[in-house]
Each structure stands twice: as structure tokens, then as C-alpha cells.
Design goal:
Pdz3 Domain; about 500 residues; six-stranded antiparallel β-barrel; Thrombin, subunit H; alpha+beta; 9 helices
């Protein structure tokens, strides 16, 4: 027998193989085994590919099934409000200090505000129309959506999945969580069931459905990227689910669904320059459900109130209070005749548990207390001089935002400039006239301090430190620490009337 082979740089040659000689046949047998092995490999790989494709097909079918089941309950919302055409323009010439640096009502929809907006010729009134999403949560027409979409609207139109267009009425809206409930006059509607978002885990698959840019019933998928996002300046009570499921303008108010097709969140915000970059935020259903039930029952939300000023434990601070893990909310002040005072909570107590669940931050405590009704009894655990103490508190009714006084998140004591500051929240922005901005609000100015001499006053808004945008207290403190090394600090400060640049020289030790 002869075979023909080709070598690099040479032509074909003939090689003879003798089958009768065992020694000479071994290379041939080895070659056959080798060739058969090579032939088997692609078959094995092909089998694995088939299995992978099958898994992907099943996943695709799962997404399709969820979309088919939930989409009929997702609605488009078109909200109209009447505004003054000659209202003061906003100055964005310094750049937006955060992704939410425009009027929140405008940001998430199709209308965009230019950085230097000039109002048109004065008119008495004009209509402003925005588009978003919502989802039916009861067969008799109750719909969950966002306050920033419908809270200020005069007329609300809802388009159902079957094409019907109906007028909706506001049942109630809660600016402090950005949750709103509207209702349409219809029966036997498809609806989305509400899941328990507390058991949602980072890494789980989630699906967003909404009407981005007016494109009805757009479905996107991703994972839960993080939980408990706070300090975003979107609302007063923040505990956002972060997801990389694509969320764009107009998705706001739509559902974030788990693989059971149940709502785990309300899509609310996106972080980025105006389009999806894989960071979207959703209000957990655990918060939205509590608000929904109260709005449905009475049209308003009442919240429990401890009556304490609280803050986070900064790194290294815990050892002074008998704890090493740095978790919990430290009580800075107990208000007279408050629920906390009556229960025996004291200044410098560290609240580490509520109803058997650990408290990680001051914001965590504030959110969880606020989700309980006045008159509720809650069990808390405090660390007092390093020892655990169990205390039962009967909650008061939380006063209106502008009567609360000191706000959680303010610095514990005046800083190097003589300032106490707090993160600007949506509620504060509305009250102080800083809608569409972010930064830290001056809560107090120490008499005779550097800040006092520079003319800084309470309720001013600091948006930059040494030309670095600051969005919350943590960023402000970090920027101020850098400024100390330079020996001077340049602040961009806003008031209702104007914007100022203030240069302050810091004393050298």
C-alpha cells in the first residue's frame, strides 16, 4: 500500500506501508486512532453547542412568556400640565452636577431642557405634555406609576395594551417616595402581581417593560446590579434597586419584573447623560406597596416618627461608642416629648436593629420607620456604652417635611469652614426652589466662622468645591478634605436669587 503526502516546500512523495510487519504497522495504527480522535472532537463540541443553544432558547422562551403575560397590564401614560410660559429660566451654564441636573418632570421624558433655556415671549399659560409608563395592579383599574410623571398633572390619559385610551384620575401621590396611584374606569383588567422585593438578590435576572421614547411595550432584560442605592437625590426616601436592564426616557413608571413575571420595582431613573448606559434605578415594591395601600385607602400617606436626629457611623468612629463594625445609626439628638424620648432612647445610642433586622445606615433606619404607621409599636436594639439594650417604641406621626427641623444626613458638627450641611433631597429642592439641581444645603453657619465671614447663609446650596461637583454630604466632605491640603477652597454657591463663587483661605496649622 502507498500513500501520498506533501511537505512544505516539496512536492508529493510516495511512502510505502507494509501491513505484514507488526513493527512497521504501529505508526499506522496510532495514526488511525489519532484521526478518529480528531473526528470525534467536533462531534462532542457540536453536542455541547447544541446544549448551550438549547439553554439560550429556553431562556428566550422564558423572557417571551413573561413579556406575553405582563405586557397587557403595562400602560402608556400621557400627562398634561398647565405652566406659565414666562416662568423664570434655569441656568445650567455650569453643567449639571448630577444626572438629575434638570427638572425631574422633564428629564425622564421626551421634552429636553437646553443648558441655557430662554423662555418664549410671555404668555398667560401653555400646556406641557410628557409621556411615561405605568402598570395595572388591580383588575378594577388601579395603576402604579411615578409621582414625577403625574403628581403635577392636570390631565392624565392612559393607553391600554389593547389600544383603548381612557382618562385617569389621581388617587394619590407621594413625592417623598416618588410613587403615585391613578385609576381608570374599567373592570376585569389584566394586572401585574406584586412580589416581595426584600428577597430579591443581586445577580438575579429582571425584565423592564415600558414606553421609552413613546415606543409602546418595549421589553428589556438584565440583572439586579445592586440593592439599597441611596443618596441619589431623586426622592427623600431612597432604597433603590439598580439594574442594567435598559431603561430609557419614558420607561419611568413601568414595572421591573422577576422571572415569575411579578413586579419587584417601579422603574424610576437612569444615570447617564440622557440615555441608557446600563445603570437604571427602580423603587422597590416593598416601599411602593406600603404607599399604594395607604393612597388607595385614604389618598395620602402618613408615616411613623421616632423624633431623633441621626447620622451614620463614620470609619473609625465606632470604637468610641463600643462597636467595631461601624454599622448602625447614631442618635445625635432626641427631640423633647418625642416617641424616642418617651421610650428612653438617648443621645449617643447606636440603633443597630429594628424588629430583629440589622440597621446598616441612618437612611436605612429612616426608611424603615417611615414605612410604619403612627401608633405602631416597634422593637429596637441600641448599643449604649458598648452594651445591647432592647427598647420598645410607640411611633408618633411624622410632621410635614418643612416642620421636621434637623434633617438626617447633615454633618454632625460644623466643618473646617464652620458649616453644617445636608444632601439636597427632592422634598428640600421643592421647598427651597432648587428643583433640577443637586448638591449640599447649608443647614447652619457657625457665628464668626470662615463661612460666616464669606457671607454664606443657611439654605444656600453648595454645588461645587474647587470646581468639583458635589452631589451629597459624602462627596462634599471628600472634596473639602482635598481642599484643606491646598490651603484654600473655591465654592460655587447658589441661592434663590443668584450664583456666587466664593474663595476662602484656610488657616495653616
Amino acid at each position: 500500500m502507498s500513500t501520498t503526502v506533501a511537505r512544505r516546500g516539496e512536492g508529493p512523495q510516495t511512502r510505502h506501508v507494509a501491513f505484514g510487519n507488526p513493527d512497521r504497522s504501529r505508526p499506522f495504527v496510532s495514526s488511525v486512532v489519532f484521526v478518529l480522535t480528531l473526528l470525534a472532537l467536533p462531534l462532542s463540541a457540536l453536542g455541547e453547542d447544541d446544549q448551550s443553544v438549547a439553554v439560550l432558547r429556553r431562556m428566550g422562551k422564558a423572557f417571551a412568556s413573561i413579556a406575553e403575560k405582563a405586557s397587557p397590564a403595562v400602560v402608556g401614560i400621557r400627562a398634561t400640565r398647565v405652566v406659565r410660559a414666562d416662568s423664570p429660566s434655569r441656568d445650567y451654564s455650569y453643567g449639571d452636577p448630577s444626572p438629575f441636573g434638570q427638572d425631574f418632570f422633564d428629564y425622564f421624558f421626551r421634552k429636553r431642557t437646553p443648558r441655557r433655556y430662554q423662555a418664549p415671549e410671555p404668555k398667560e399659560k401653555e400646556k406641557e405634555v410628557v409621556q411615561g409608563s405605568g402598570f395595572i395592579v388591580a383588575a378594577d383599574g388601579f395603576i402604579l406609576t411615578n409621582n414625577h410623571l403625574v403628581g403635577e398633572a392636570d390631565d392624565i390619559a392612559v393607553q391600554l395594551g389593547d389600544g383603548r385610551k381612557l382618562t385617569a384620575k389621581i388617587v394619590g401621590a407621594d413625592p417623598e417616595t416618588d410613587v403615585a396611584v391613578v385609576r381608570i374606569a374599567a373592570e376585569n383588567l389584566p394586572y401585574v402581581e406584586l412580589a416581595n422585593s426584600d428577597v430579591l438578590e443581586v445577580g438575579e435576572w429582571v425584565i423592564a417593560i415600558g414606553n421609552p421614547f413613546g415606543l409602546s411595550h418595549t421589553v428589556t432584560a438584565g440583572i439586579v446590579s445592586a440593592k439599597g442605592r441611596q443618596g441619589m437625590g431623586v426622592s427623600y426616601y431612597e432604597d433603590f434597586i439598580q439594574t442594567d436592564a435598559a431603561i430609557n426616557l419614558g420607561n419611568s413608571g413601568g414595572p421591573l419584573l422577576n422571572l415569575d413575571g411579578k413586579a419587584v420595582g417601579i422603574n424610576t431613573a437612569l444615570i447617564g447623560p440622557g440615555g441608557n448606559i446600563g445603570i437604571g434605578l427602580a423603587i422597590p415594591i416593598s416601599i411602593a406597596k406600603t404607599v399604594y395601600e395607604q393612597l388607595k385607602e385614604s389618598g395620602k400617606v402618613v408615616r411613623g416618627y421616632l423624633g431623633v436626629d441621626i447620622d451614620n457611623l463614620e470609619t473609625g468612629m465606632g470604637e468610641f461608642f463600643g462597636t467595631q463594625n461601624g454599622k448602625g445609626a447614631i442618635v445625635l439628638k432626641v427631640l423633647d416629648d418625642s416617641a424616642a424620648a418617651k421610650a428612653g432612647i438617648k443621645a449617643d445610642d447606636i440603633i443597630v436593629e429594628l424588629e430583629g433586622q440589622p440597621i446598616a445606615t441612618a437612611n436605612d433606619l429612616m426608611n424603615r420607620v417611615a414605612m410604619r404607621k403612627p401608633g405602631s409599636k416597634i422593637d429596637v436594639v441600641v448599643l449604649r456604652e458598648g452594651k445591647r439594650k432592647n427598647i420598645t417604641v410607640t411611633l408618633d406621626k411624622r410632621p410635614p417635611q418643612d416642620e421636621v427641623g434637623a434633617v438626617s444626613g447633615a454633618t454632625k458638627a460644623p466643618d473646617a469652614l464652620g458649616l453644617s450641611v445636608q444632601t439636597l433631597t427632592r422634598g428640600l429642592a421643592e421647598r427651597l426652589g432648587y428643583e433640577g439641581l443637586s448638591g449640599v444645603v447649608v443647614a447652619d453657619v457657625e457665628s464668626g466662622s470662615l463661612a460666616d465671614e464669606a457671607g454664606i447663609e443657611p439654605e444656600m446650596l453648595i454645588v461645587e468645591v474647587n470646581r468639583e461637583a458635589v452631589r451629597n454630604v459624602k462627596q462634599y466632605n471628600q472634596a473639602l478634605a482635598k481642599a484643606k491640603q491646598k490651603g484654600k477652597v473655591l465654592l460655587r454657591v447658589r441661592s434663590e436669587e443668584s450664583t456666587k463663587l466664593l474663595l476662602i483661605t484656610l488657616p495653616q496649622k
